[in-house]
Amino acid sequence: MAGMEGRTRDRVWRYGPLLFWIAFIFFASTGEFSSSNTSRIIGPFLQWLFPQISEENLALAHLITRKVAHFAEYAILGWFAARAFSTSLTPALRVRWFFISLLLVIICSLADEYHQSFVPTRTGSMYDSLIDMSGGLTALLLYRLWRRRKVRQ
């Protein structure tokens, strides 16, 4: 019984953060994270940091912040996926962790943007999907590098 309990705890530790992050991404895909809503937070913050900022620069900074957020949220997804699959008890997942993680990033990215195309306050964009995939791929490459260095030590 203790062995089964330990395996369950290991699976939750391994896959829990990944599943939580996927759920967060799809929550962030709703109208709650639309540009008009995020501008209510980002705009005043930037105006506090830079009181003389022009409306044009404020809009540009907001756009850049949102694109960096796309990259970062999928980098986190890639890292959690790599962490989960590279330590899996299933040999097929463990051996192919990089490609399975990348496939998950791609599927989530495309599904996220597809979903946004149906949300009235959002817009689905292949460009955003490419930013998402770039974030995920960057994290996977960094994870691979980190693992190789860890093995050498």
Word description of this protein:
With 153 residues, this protein is mostly helical. The chain has one domain. The chain contains six helices and no strands. Helix 1 runs antiparallel to helix 3 and helix 3 runs antiparallel to helix 5. The longest helix is centred in the middle third of the chain and has 32 residues. The two termini are 36 Å apart. The model has no long low-confidence stretch (mean pLDDT 91).
Radius of gyration: 19 Å
Average predicted confidence as pLDDT: 91
Largest sheet: none
Number of domains: 1
Helix/strand order, N-terminal first: HHHHHH
Per DSSP, the total helix count is 6
* C-alpha end-to-end distance: 36 Å
Measured by DSSP, the beta-strand proportion falls in under 5%
**Share of helix, binned:** over 70%
Give the strand tally. Answer: 0
Shape: elongated
Q: Give the uncertain stretches in residue-range form.
A: none
Provide keyphrases for this structure.
single chain, 153 residues, mainly alpha, 6 helices
Helix/strand layout:
Layout: H1 2-28, H2 35-49, H3 55-86, H4 91-95, H5 97-116, H6 126-152
Short summary of the structure?
With 153 residues, the chain is an all-alpha fold.
